[in-house]
Amino acid sequence: MSIAYIGIGSNLGNREENCLKAIELLENKGIVVRKRSSLYETEPWGVKDQPKFINMAIEIETELEPEELLKTLKDIEKEVGREESFRWGSRIIDLDILLFDDIILDKDYLRIPHTFMHERDFVLKPLCEIAPDKKHPLLGKTIKELINAKNTFK
């Protein structure tokens, strides 16, 4: 079994319900959700002229390989109602693999750890709530250390 951390976000429709629906669908596919963060309302990142997001993070236990997990997440996004749009645009649901065990993977379609996670408060805050001592495999710092370095908790 592998342990992975998934970032969840929504800024269209009933944002909280969209996030919780995605978790329910993960569990329906046999993925064990071990921990879940609180819901955080956050400013958009990248493209600012759009509604605020609800973000959260979950810790899962899975037998899937990273590529299989990515496919499952994409299928769930479609099931919740996500439609393709421009990069960093509004979306009904967004599911990202943040960390997967301690692996480092760099493919065109999948990068683990997630490329920008250490720069994004909307990822670090919920992730710190459920996994403060988890180390970023490239940076060698814990999630709590990454957050403290950014001074996000004022």
**Amino- and carboxy-terminal Cα gap:** 37 Å
- Shape, principal axes of CA atoms: globular
Largest sheet: 5 strands, antiparallel
What number of structural domains do the residues give? 1
CATH homologous superfamily assignment: 7,8-Dihydro-6-hydroxymethylpterin-pyrophosphokinase HPPK
Strand content: 15-25%
Helix content: 25-40%
**DSSP E strands, number:** 7
- SSE run: EHEEEHEEEHH
Total helical elements: 4
Mean pLDDT: 90
Which structural class best describes the helix and strand composition? Answer: alpha+beta
CATH architecture: 2-Layer Sandwich
Radius of gyration: 14 Å
Which segments are poorly predicted (pLDDT under 50) over 5 or more consecutive residues?
Answer: none
Question: Under the CATH scheme, which class?
Answer: Alpha Beta
| Oligomer status | single chain
List the helices and strands and how they pair.
Layout: E1 2-10, H1 15-28, E2 32-36, E3 40-42, E4 53-62, H2 66-80, E5 94-100, E6 105-106, E7 111-112, H3 121-130, H4 143-150
Antiparallel strand pairs: 1-4, 1-5, 2-4, 3-4, 6-7
What does it look like?
The protein has one domain (2-150): 7,8-Dihydro-6-hydroxymethylpterin-pyrophosphokinase HPPK (Alpha-Beta Plaits, 2-Layer Sandwich), CATH 3.30.70. Helices cover 31% and strands 25% of the residues. The protein contains four helices and seven strands. It has helices spanning 15-28, 66-80, 121-130, 143-150, and strands spanning 2-10, 32-36, 40-42, 53-62, 94-100, 105-106, 111-112. Strands 1, 2, 3, 4 and 5 form a five-stranded antiparallel β-sheet that branches. Strands 6-7 form a two-stranded antiparallel ribbon. The longest helix has 15 residues, at 66-80.
